[in-house]
Recover the amino acids of this structure.
């Protein structure tokens, strides 16, 4: 009897031990299952995420692709608004004077327009001219020649980048009124294209060398939306060479409201410029922004 009881007790202990050992086995399966699930999650997440977010991603990609361009366009538009007037406030009359469309405190009659012909020539002179213009809060039109641009396109970019307004002064600085229609067209249109290709902006102003114009010149100006512009005050800096004082006195002697002043990119003119602008200001003149001038004479 005791042997049987002992046997049953021993059997019970063995059975209890077996049950106890099954629990860890079950426990070890759980981490395995967890590990498998965890392993599957990274494997499936990108696919799930791509599927779930593809429309959003495409939308985002589209936005990201267009946003810089839109931003650039917006910036360009803001820059244009900042530099260009909301509307034309001045026009040029048949005497080649600049006249306010409606005289007011903001658009006074006592103005001059500064223009420089025959460049671009030298970086040092250009920077000096632009420094002086900046000092006096003045803008100017630079009537340039195509053959010079071909040699030094970087100088045209320098004038443009520093706020100078570029005008077309033909390819080779020849007297247009003596040339054929085909030659005149080539001289103006080649320069127009060259300028636009160089600074990404087409000139709005045209001046014939020596002011020698004809019907073909005016027709081409109209075709390309340019205002043909001669001058009403000559500095004679091409005559009184190496004489800054003569440049100043020539301008001051002819000065009147609306004067379009002709000067050149010459060392003595560059030297005279600061004093000239100071004298003009002392007489109550301000400097008209070429961007404010209508594209048609009236």
């Amino acid at each position: 009897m005791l042997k049987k009881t002992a046997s049953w007790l021993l059997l019970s202990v063995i059975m209890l031990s077996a049950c106890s050992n099954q629990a860890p086995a079950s426990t070890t399966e759980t981490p395995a299952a967890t590990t498998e699930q965890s392993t599957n999650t990274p494997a499936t997440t990108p696919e799930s995420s791509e599927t779930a977010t593809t429309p959003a991603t495409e939308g985002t990609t589209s936005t990201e692709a267009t946003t810089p361009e839109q931003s650039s366009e917006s910036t360009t538009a803001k820059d244009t608004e900042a530099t260009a007037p909301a509307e034309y406030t001045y026009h040029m009359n048949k005497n080649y004077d600049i006249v306010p469309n409606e005289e007011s405190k903001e658009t006074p009659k006592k103005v001059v327009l500064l223009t420089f012909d025959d460049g671009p020539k030298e970086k040092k002179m250009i920077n000096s001219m632009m420094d002086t213009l900046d000092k006096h809060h003045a803008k100017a039109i630079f009537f340039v020649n195509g053959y010079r641009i071909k040699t030094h396109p970087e100088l045209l970019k320098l004038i443009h980048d520093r706020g100078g307004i570029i005008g077309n002064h033909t390819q080779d600085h020849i007297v247009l009124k003596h040339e054929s229609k085909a030659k005149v067209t080539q001289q103006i249109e080649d320069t127009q294209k060259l300028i636009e290709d160089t600074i990404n902006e087409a000139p709005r102003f045209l001046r014939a060398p020596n002011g020698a114009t004809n019907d073909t010149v005016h027709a081409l100006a109209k075709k390309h939306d340019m205002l043909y512009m001669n001058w009403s005050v000559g500095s004679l800096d091409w005559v009184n060479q190496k004489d800054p004082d003569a440049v100043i006195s020539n301008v001051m002697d002819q000065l009147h409201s609306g004067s379009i002043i002709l000067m050149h990119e010459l060392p003595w003119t560059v030297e005279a410029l600061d004093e000239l602008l100071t004298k003009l200001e002392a007489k109550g003149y301000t400097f008209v922004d070429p961007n404010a001038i209508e594209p048609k004479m009236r």
Remarks:
- The mean pLDDT is 81.
